[in-house]
Design goal:
The structure is a single chain. It is built from 4 helices and 11 strands, in the order H-H-H-E-E-E-E-E-E-E-H-E-E-E-E. The chain has 213 residues and is of the alpha+beta class. A 5-stranded mixed β-sheet has the order 1-2-3-11-10. A two-stranded antiparallel sheet has the order 4-7. Strands 5-6 form a two-stranded antiparallel sheet. Helix 2 runs antiparallel to helix 4 (148-160). 28% of the residues are buried. The model is unreliable at 208-213 (pLDDT under 50).
Length: 213
Amino acid sequence: MIGFMTDETQFNKFINIDSIDTRIVNYLRDSESKEAERIWKLLKYSDMRALFQEPLTKKEKNELIYRDKDQNFKRIFTMPLVEDSMTETCSLLKIYISSIEPTDHLRATVNIAIDILSHNKLNNVYNDSNDILEDGREVEEDIVVKNRNNILLKSILGILNGANVEGVGMLQFNQSLTKESQMKNYSNNKTNFYGYSLVMSCIMSGMGEAMYG
């Protein structure tokens, strides 16, 4: 029986558990997709024409990632609690492990929370694109503005759902994998920020690798 195993090499060692959040941030930073471009523009710029700004350079993206003690002017964090930046009129992403569900001694579901937050004064931005129907047709809209957090949510799901992130595995927004995988509204009247808390999941399995689910 598993409970009486004495060989510790036969257990899941969660080798990459301490770098999952950073690897996801780097994946977003290095993506050249249109969705990623929108995310970084919305994080850097607070005006309604944010999506019409020039794409950010890698240096500009790195400057938005929190790495030291000073949280001012940072926009992406790998922890759930953020203080200094919550006083700014901006948008934020918080990416962190929310829970781990071990299936057995070798396999576990790791749930990663992605909090999408914007100050309530930044609700709308000017629309920079038309929507696409299920059959692939582009719809020319008369929608002038869209909700900032909705664009961030759509872009994050578009990039990360089903993505094979090196050292993490396949990220999934999939309740057949775990019921933790869901999106909930997030609001905090004390900080005037609102948005969504999205949970995506991956399978971590084996003694030395993060395997794809």
